[in-house]
Fold this protein.
Amino acid sequence: MATTKETTSTVQSAPSVTHYLKTHVRDYGMLIALVVIMGMFEFLTDGTLMRPVNLTNLFLQNSYIIIMAIGMLLVIVAGHIDLSVGSVAGFIGALAAVMSVNYDLPTILVVPVCLVVGLIIGGLQGYWIAYWKIPAFIVTLAGMLVFRGLTLALLEGQSVGPFPKSFQLLSTGFIPDVFGVGRPNVTALVLGVLAASAIVFLAARSRAQSLKYGIQDEPFSFFLVKNALIAAAIIYLSYLLSTYRGLPNVLITMAVLIAIYTFITNSTTIGRRIYALGGNVKAAKLSGINTERLTFLTFANMGMLAALAGLIFAARLNTATPKAGFAFELDVIAAVFIGGASMTGGVGKVIGAVIGAFIMGVMNNGMSILGIGIDWQQVIKGLVLLAAVVFDVYNKQKAR
Amino acid sequence: MENIILEMRGITKTFPGVKALDSVNLKVREGEIHALVGENGAGKSTLMKVLSGVYPFGSYDGDILFNGETVAFSGITDSEEKGIIIIHQELALVPLLSIAENLFLGNENVENGVINWPKTYARTQTLLEMVGLKESPSTLLGQLGVGKQQLVEIAKALAKDVKLLILDEPTSALQENDSAKLLDLLLEFKAQGISSILITHKLNEISRVADSITVIRDGASVSTLDCHAQSISEEDIIRDMVGRDMANRYPQRESHLGKILMEVSSWNVWHPEALDRQMIHDIAFNVRAGEIVGIAGLMGSGRTELAMSLFGQSYGKNIQGEVRLRGESADLSSVPKAIKSGLAYVTEDRKELGLILEETIQINTTLANLDRVSSRGVINENIERQVSEDYRQALNIRTPSVFQKVMNLSGGNQQKVVLSKWLYSQPDVLILDEPTRGIDVGAKFEIYNIINQLADDGKGVVMISSEMPELLGMCDRIYVMNEGRFVGELDQADASQEKIMSMIVKA
């Protein structure tokens, strides 16, 4: 019985690369779009986009959007939405400023307190959504107004700054070169190579395992080319960064968060249950899943990540302003949908949201370098969001 | 002699990679009720979509002749103009609009762009009388039961001057007396010269109203039977549908009863919103190891409410009573606790309540017992894959791999996935709520075998079903339920449809 199974599945698993690409166009479409967009701006800006200093800026500029997009992905997969993240990020930045600047509290205390406050804010909103079944749109719209107001009140309408040096490191710090060469930054290179090898190693291991079970449909040549390209891209990027000031602290924070949340969504019971909850809340509940608690947790998590984003944004500006975080939620939500998440919940990937955020970020950056006004930037970003979702829906319909 | 109102000749429809219809022929005489039967996925719905223009002219091969002339519909509007109207299984009505508004939705009584309400209400009144529905035209649709909504849908067809009415499993959600009313209505229409095509799984309905029958199997028309020219037995139809003789619709089983596994006593449940309405009154029952216990009753008798209130208090408020599992008092106050105590509940509505349609078979299989394939909260996908693969083979789920999304499976295969999920939670007692609803005959037989296997393995099975023959064929004992109470208990030997009905009626 088992042997016949094996043979049938090996017979099936020899599809052509083009066929595989066609059936998986949704998985790779946005990554390809990101590469194309980067290539386009690289050309249009005469190579400014990929210059080490601009690349470093690109990461610094988009880190807080990406961090919030990770949390938002979970919220959207669970079938909800969070409109308050921009206000919460702004509020936490203000809180950090008041604590560090007005009260001279040490950064080592300010950061954890702010994260916990973010967690509590998210939890409070999640409480109404999960246990009182009040639509997330309403609760977080209220939260958006409340924390926008509280930011103003806390700062008394003024900007507060500058932050102490230790706090600024959150955003503007770089990993020092432990090898002492300085430029190129050997640590950055080594870390880049390590990350690339780790990704290739994990991919190879998971491929070997699925081959053992006879369910691999990815052609080997495709696997090889894909991983070679990803590894090359990572090493090339880390080389570019190493010729400037090395790896920004924020990049490491981001990479770690992406790794952790990818693991949570792919491989843990809690991640699986969030997808189930978003896919069909009634079926999930009748399968013994505590849907209320999970909803509560996704919002608490979102609050904490919004707080982290708020801290990084404040550190980057080196001041907390009443307008900080204004309309961030729109960029964050757009990033998640560009990354292929479904409006109705149950579908979406962390890496998709990150790619979505980078697409937005590269476009912002590229268009600014080209001197395109903020007016047309908005128009183009809006159209890209629409195009991405249309692309997704179109592929889904074709697959039927 | 008689006029042929509709003739479909050599209809062939291909989807990428699949031939859904292969030169199907269908001939409907004027003023007859024509039954269209076949297993799920045989191609009935596709054929009707070709007829109504959902698949426009040119996307299929073959000819459609309506009243003797060839027609080429490019959309539903075209076919409705000719008087061909389909009533789908899922009703296309708006619950928050009134009956009158629903009846003329898209077909309003308009004068210069303004709706003439008095005329609308008057016409609604006439149409409601025609279908025998005693409701005010201004009643909101959502306030009506499914049976009455069905009648509104038919009235809507009448408003469009219907010549050929197509009903897709109209009685699948109706209880016995509503179904009977609906079938009577079809007979009335027949007297008025309206022809109908009735798609159904219920063979007793066919023998009651149909004049002729077309059986479709695997995308081809297998046979057309004239009910007046020959005497047709249900077995004949079934044989044509499945292509094999099913001498016995219910597999034989020798029961070996063990100890009492579950015992429920003085179970009382109140309505979750209307707190003064008691839904379940003082119910007591038990299930033994190796026993299949049936719960018979009409729709709305409280069977699902009973099952869901037992399963982690998923229904109702103010629940009182005691459940003993394996002799010990059990805490079933939440779904996780109920699962841990060894209870499983296979829901009535598998798409709404049983499955995550967007996910794969693998993910659905382990959902109720994820902890068993994971350690410290991390899922071992290799074990998970093996587990779901084992169930796929054991329950004969027809799909190339466990990575198939559940939404792409047929009803019978979906139900097997739901069963896999609950088998993997390793229950002692399974409550199966309408386990074969909307499943074709062949798959039903397989589900019955699975249920028998469960009993043979020493599990207790509670089977809720609206189909009395199914309960009579499968159960060791049958409890009869009516209006939230158990009104009788019958052993297999003395149970019969008549006895069950009389218990319900006399209660």
Notes: The radius of gyration of chain B is 25 Å. Chain B is about 35% helix and 25% strand.
